[in-house]
Amino acid sequence: MIILDNPGLREDKDGNAFVCGTRQTLQSAAHQVQLLPEDLYVTYILKRKPTRKYEKEHTRSICVHHLEAQLSKQEPSALFCLVMFPFKQCLNMKLQL
């Protein structure tokens, strides 16, 4: 299971599709070790892309309960947090991995 902070933008202001640096790195690393997209379970702390400025800590504290439910349901054998908030939050969770 790979945890990212939020789904982020999928296109620029002109409507052209792009992949952000974090997702480019993830795709490149997966390709290098011959993992297919269906081999990975990617999820996010926030369940939709932010559309305006928001109180990050408050919003994340609400959304993290959904992540905990996903972890319980998916029972991943490995957990990779690709941004600082999920990593810090995961350290505080009582995971049974």
UniProtKB/TrEMBL annotation:
Q: Where is the Uracil-DNA glycosylase-like domain?
A: 1-92
- According to its UniProt entry, this protein's organism is Paracerasibacillus soli
Source organism phylogeny: Bacteria, Bacillati, Bacillota, Bacilli, Bacillales
Protein name (database record): Uracil-DNA glycosylase family protein
A Pfam family reported for this protein in Swiss-Prot or TrEMBL: UDG
